[in-house]
Amino acid sequence: MKALTWQGKRKVSVETVPDPKIEAANDAIIEVTSTAICGSDLHLYEVLGPFMEPGDVIGHEPMGRVVEAGPSSNLSEGDRVVIPFTIACGSCWMCDRGLYSQCETTQVKEYGSGAKLFGYSKLYGSVPGAQAEYLRVPHADFGPIKVGEDLPDHRYLFLSDVLPTAWQAVQYADVGEGDALAVFGLGPIGQMCARIGRHLGARVFGIDPVPERRAMAQRHGVEVFDYTDETNDAIRDATDGRGPDGVVDAVGMEAHGSPLGKAAHQAVGLLPDALSEPLMEKAGVDRLAALHSSLDLVRRGGAVSLSGVYGGEADPMPMLTLFDKQIQLRAGQCNVKAWIDDLLPLVEDSSDPLGVDDLVTHRVPLDEAPGAYEMFQKKEDDCIKVVLDPKAES
C-alpha cells in the first residue's frame, strides 16, 4: 500500500509499504477514506525527530471502511468508522474512569508515556499511522466510532481528534454561559475551541498572528486579536479589567515569540539521536510564549487549559503567578471516547452548530502530502486544515 513516511527533519515522502494484517482477535483493518494532517504532526516534522525512525508511517486522524474484522472486534466488513487517535482497551482501571489516554493496557512504559497513539513516535509506541491507504486498528472492540452513511466524511472525520480535543480543552477551561474565554492559537484545534466556547454561551476572544485564521474565527462570532504586546491589555479592558474566566493554550511547544526555545529546538535538531533524545526527555526546550501569555491573561481564580503539545521536562514556569493568582491549570492528551456522546449529535445536526463545514481549506490526494506538509507548516495559501484522500489521483 501507499503511505506517508517520516524520513528526517522537514522531510516526508509517500512510499510503498507492506499492507497491515490482523494480529489479534480484536484487531480490524480499515480502508482509509479520509485522513487529516494535524498540527501535532508538525511537531514530528520539525521538533520530535529524535524519537522517529526513517520509514515510520505517520498520521492519526482517520476514518474509513472496515475491510477485515477480527472475530472479537465487534465490527463487520463494510462498517463506516472514525478511529480515535488514542489506542485504549476500554476496560482497565484508567479506562473505567474515562481516562482513555492513560490506558494501562497500552501505556508506553519504556518512555513513561500514556496510551499508545497512531503514528506518533517511539514516545507513544511507534504504532504505524493513518496517512495511508489502509490502517490496522488495535483494540477495535472499543476504539472505533461507528457513523452513518448520509453525511460526507468531513462531518465525521474530526471526531478522531480535533473536536474531542477542543471539547475537552474548553471543559478544562471551566467556562460556560455568560463567561469569557480566550483562545491562544487559531489553528484547527483553536478554531474549534473558540466555536465550542460560543456554542456553550461564552464570549470568546481568539488570538493568532495569521490574518486568515483570525478571519475564519471571526466568521463564527469570535472577537479576534493579533498576537502583540498589547493584546492581553486589550482583552483585560474588554473584561472589566479582570481578564477572561478561562484561557486555552492551543499553540504548544512551537509558539511564536519564543526565540530562546526556537534556538533550543534548532540546536537539538542538529545533534545525533543518541544525544538529542535524552536532551528532549530531560531538558526544558519548549517555546513558552503562549503558555506564559495565558497565565498572565487569565483572571485571578480562573483556569488555564493546555491543549497544545509540550515536550520539555524542565521548562521554566512562573510559579509565583500561578500561586498568587490562584490559577487552575489542566492539561493532557484527549480522552476521545469520553466526549463522543456530546459531539456526535452536533456533527450530525443539519444546522452544523460547530461550523464543521467551514474548517477544511485543502483536500489533496495522499501523493501530494509532502507538499501539503510544507504548505501547512509555512501557513501558505491560506492553509488551516488539510485532509488527505488516499483514493484520489494526483
From TrEMBL:
Belongs to the zinc-containing alcohol dehydrogenase family. This is Glutathione-dependent aldehyde dehydrogenase. Its cofactor is Zn(2+). It holds the Pfam family ADH_zinc_N. It comes from the Bacteria. Residues 188-254 form the Alcohol dehydrogenase-like C-terminal domain. The keyword Oxidoreductase applies. GO terms for molecular function: oxidoreductase activity; zinc ion binding. Keywords: Metal-binding, Oxidoreductase, Zinc. Residues 25-144 form the Alcohol dehydrogenase-like N-terminal domain.
